[in-house]
Automatic annotation (TrEMBL):
It comes from the Bacteria. Residues 145-425 form the PhoD-like phosphatase metallophosphatase domain. InterPro entries: Metallo-depent_PP-like, PhoD-like_MPP, PhoD-like_sf. This is Alkaline phosphatase family protein. PANTHER family: METALLOPHOSPHATASE BINDING DOMAIN PROTEIN, PHOD-LIKE PHOSPHATASE METALLOPHOSPHATASE DOMAIN-CONTAINING PROTEIN. SUPFAM superfamilies: Metallo-dependent phosphatases.
Length: 498
């Protein structure tokens, strides 16, 4: 909580009231970024304080420009979205979207039945800040990763970027922590509006970091939140205080304003924030494993999300896919069951982290039900593959998950962290936690392919196979601080097993 006398609002010698930011590069002010793309539409997210609308112009070679306006208001902290639609489907065509002085380039998605090659990038855990010896927030050397990542992804022709959680660390550093700078206490939280303002400030601070911002401006970007966008281990704690619950409501609101609204169908709504999209014959089922999570009642995905998942997997849309990527910010395979069984009942924060896993006692039923549904979808046609895309754990890894005595294989590709510094304890735990993954797992078999402890992003490249299905290549691009360059640090290639 804030100590008395501390404030972000100060008066200048001339008596003018100014709001100070504690972020070294300031906070995001105005901006425009591309969100979901289809073969005909593009979603544009924008912010312009004080403007009731912002004009967006979509230019596609061979067509007249399409113009629309993004409605903005103080109600949404001057953020808004607009979907611009081409007069007809223009699969794979390049476009430019002009919003104010910004020119955002992209390509439309392939046609839904186009069995084609493409690449995309994913990553999680954006914490480019650290404390200097005086306790002030400064930009970390790791932030240099972003311009290099942008260049690399442009060179690689990545079609979009998936941000798989912890885009905002609302709770990591005391000077910019939401919780530590609010008035009130755990049982007497301040009004919701005060907390919403605090989340807006921290979100603008993290999303405004220049390199991360330039990366998002270069690619259509899809998002899903994880705990730090709210606060650490939300939903896996044994007890929730009145302040915890109000923090969650405020974080939900601001996540919608700044992140979710750019996703397919994204709007200001109550969680969970799952969604689907497709890119040719590859589909993406993005799960929200935070929005409904409640450890004491054993709820992970929640009834609504689970019903939506089942409906999607049984739909004609899913039947026409060759490959399905399932985004789950928390990996399914990365932490072994034996370790979770051993530590999940302990009190304290480390045990909250353990309870956070898909294989903790409260959530293992949800895990098994989800995997079973995914295996059923995957094995219903010979060319199908399922790959989980994850983050959260401050390491990258690749696993194959199989059912004992049955057909089917599910890949798991994890990329984390982008710029968060993994602590020594986290590194050690990652080494231990991915060992002996088959202990206490009578139904499933886990195979670990590699583990990477450096900061990284993930690159996925798909190549269509003539007999159906894709060749999938997952590469972990590890950041080397000394040479300020990426190097390939782990690679997993996969094709349908037929
Ligand atoms: Fe993280």
């Amino acid at each position: 909580m804030r100590r008395e006398g501390e404030s972000d609002i100060q008066a200048t010698p001339a008596g003018e009231i100014v709001t100070l930011t504690r972020f070294p590069g300031g906070e995001l002010h105005d901006g425009a970024e591309l969100g979901a793309v289809t073969e005909q539409t593009v979603r544009v997210w924008a912010r312009q304080p004080g403007a009731p609308t912002l004009i967006a112009r979509l230019e596609i070679p061979g067509f007249s420009p399409v113009v629309g306006s993004v409605p903005l208001s103080a109600e949404t902290d001057w953020t808004g979205v607009l979907t611009l639609s081409a007069p007809a489907p223009v699969p794979d065509q390049p476009f430019v979207c002009i919003v104010g002085e910004r020119r955002l380039s992209g390509r439309f998605a392939p046609a839904p039945d186009e069995h084609c090659a493409f690449a995309f990038a994913f990553g999680s855990c954006h914490r480019p800040y650290e404390l200097d010896p005086d306790g002030h927030v400064r930009l970390s050397e790791r932030a240099k990763l972003y311009p290099a990542m942008r260049e690399e992804l442009l060179t690689q022709g990545a079609r979009f970027l998936l941000l798989c959680g912890d885009q905002v660390y609302s709770d990591a550093l005391p000077p910019i922590s939401v919780r530590e700078n609010l008035p009130g206490d755990e049982d007497h939280p301040p009004p919701l509006e005060t907390i919403i303002e605090a989340y807006r400030r921290v979100t603008r601070g993290y999303l405004g970091e220049a390199g991360f911002r330039a990366l998002r401006e270069a690619f259509p970007t899809y998002c899903i939140w994880d705990d730090h966008d709210i606060f650490t281990t939300w939903g896996s704690r044994l007890h929730e205080s009145p302040l915890d619950r109000r923090l969650f409501h405020a974080a939900s609101r601001v996540y919608c304003e700044y992140q979710h609204s750019r996703n397919p169908g994204g709007s200001l709504k109550e969680p969970p924030y799952h969604y689907t999209f497709r890119f040719g014959t590859a589909g993406f089922l993005v799960l929200d494993v935070r929005g409904a999570r409640h450890y004491p009642s054993g709820t992970l995905l929640g009834t609504q999300q689970w019903e939506d998942i089942q409906r999607f997997l049984g739909s004609a849309e899913a039947a026409s896919l060759h490959t399905l990527f399932v985004v789950t910010s928390i990996p399914v395979a990365h932490v072994s069951r034996w370790l979770v069984r051993l530590f999940q009942r302990l009190p304290g924060h480390l045990a909250d982290e353990v309870r956070d896993r898909w294989c903790s006692d409260a959530f293992i039923e949800s895990r098994n039900r989800l995997l079973s549904a995914l295996f059923d979808w995957q094995t219903a046609a010979p060319y199908r593959q399922v790959a989980l895309l994850s983050g959260d754990v401050h390491a990258a890894s690749a696993f194959t998950i199989r059912r004992r005595g049955k057909f089917g294989a599910i890949l798991e590709c994890t990329s984390s962290p982008l710029t968060t510094k993994a602590t020594r304890l986290e590194r050690w735990l990652n080494l231990i936690a991915t060992r002996a993954p088959n202990l206490l797992e009578p139904e499933l078999h886990f195979e670990r392919h590699f583990l990477v402890l450096a900061n990284n992003h993930g690159l996925v490249r798909l190549r269509p196979l003539p007999g159906g299905g894709h060749h999938i290549e997952f590469t972990v691009r590890a950041w080397e601080e000394r040479s300020r360059a990426f190097r390939p640090a782990g690679r997993l290639a996969s094709a349908p097993e037929f």
